[in-house]
Recover the amino acids of this structure.
């Protein structure tokens, strides 16, 4: 597998990831926050075929390049089904997301697997982690002990739960942290939406210290 992190610091300070099957050179892009032109250049330089765009949640700093990438590559984009709530409840969509993205999104359920057409053994499973937002989700590859966590967990921290219009809930986030994320194998590498990577083992120690 190939994991390439692209960290943007100008428009949005956030991490975008390419998760690529080395054998087929097909893969996913996770949370394309900005600069679709730069991301397309990386794809072309590496001769990758991106099959799907995956979103850990609907905050603008994680979805800014989705529409351009989807159009240029002619590929779908996916997020957790709870994102539908933002279309149904105007008070939750006022300032932090893009309804055009939500309307075109293909929805995933908890524990659903996302596979590559080029290699069905290369897959990620959704783990719903409501708390930072209603639609927060972790993408987990058990075989390769890899998880893309968005803003549900960072190195020594968690995402905010008080952002107006996000439907955040601190208790739900902590429950999902303790009962889902930190229950993964301790060697699982965590790739967050902001900052450096960490591991389940490191974060268990942090939260128990």
């Amino acid at each position: 597998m190939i994991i390439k992190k692209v960290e943007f610091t100008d428009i949005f300070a956030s991490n975008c990831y390419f998760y690529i099957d080395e054998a087929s050179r097909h893969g996913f892009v996770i949370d394309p926050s900005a600069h679709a032109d730069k991301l397309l250049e990386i794809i072309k330089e590496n001769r990758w075929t991106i099959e799907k765009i995956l979103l850990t949640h609907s905050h603008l700093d994680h979805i800014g390049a989705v529409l351009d990438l989807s159009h240029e590559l002619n590929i779908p984009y996916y997020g957790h089904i709870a994102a539908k709530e933002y279309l149904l409840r105007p008070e939750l969509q006022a300032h932090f997301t893009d309804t055009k993205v939500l309307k075109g999104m293909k929805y995933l359920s908890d524990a659903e697997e996302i596979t590559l057409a080029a290699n069905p053994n290369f897959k990620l499973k959704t783990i719903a982690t409501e708390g930072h937002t209603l639609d927060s989700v972790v993408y987990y590859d058990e075989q390769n002990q890899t998880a893309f966590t968005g803003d549900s967990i960072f190195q020594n921290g968690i995402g905010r739960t008080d952002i107006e219009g996000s439907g955040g809930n601190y208790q739900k986030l902590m429950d999902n942290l303790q009962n889902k994320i930190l229950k993964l194998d301790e060697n699982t590498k965590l790739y967050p939406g902001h900052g450096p990577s960490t591991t389940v083992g490191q974060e268990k120690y942090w939260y128990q210290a």
